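Listing S7. Sequence submitted for prediction.
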Amino acid sequence: IPGDFPYVVYSKFSAQMHMRAEVAPGLEGGFDMTVLAERYVEREVDGQLLEWVAPDYPLIVIGETVTGWLGEGSEAFGDGTYADYYIMYGDRGDDLAITLTSDDFDAYLVLLDSNREIVAWGDDMGDSADAFVRVELPYSGLYYVVANAYYPETGGHYTLTVQREAASVGGVDVMQLISAASALLPSLEDVRSMPDEELAELEYVLDQLLQIIWDERTRRLWQ
């Protein structure tokens, strides 16, 4: 687990003993003694120890992509929508890009801290119904990544990705887009004679770059 371990761990043991003693001839007896074992973990918050139970959620590692199904069998989010929870461990200052993509439902992403308070959330990515979150982690330790649907009673297959590479934003390789735009720049000398295919490609590349710039401006505005 990255960073300081935030929990106080207690461990006890158990034993069962049978003892028999003879105090004097004809005077004897026995007794049983049982010692129960316990092991539990508590979290210290504001000087108070709070009982903590490890959540039974799958783990997603930074740099990993997982697939899943959102629907019956998923948990219910606060607004009644379906939600799948994943545990993630990160370091303070990690700059993460989290994406949730699906062809079956309008995706929504939430990142929660270990107290299940919202750290960041994200909705539509560009013109698509996929969700994207760009966040700098405020502390080292446990987080919850929530794959969620925007509308109740909707779900389906999804792909969830958590990555640290800042060069890839919203699932788009920025340097690849810049290279593509640079390759098309000579054609701009006479855009009127540009073939329709090249013009459409240039329009797409520039639209993607402008969307990335807009998303980053918005993120900084709301920081």
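Caption to Listing S7: primary sequence and predicted structure tokens for the chain studied. The first helix runs from residue 174 to 184. The CA atoms of residues 132 and 170 lie 6 Å apart.
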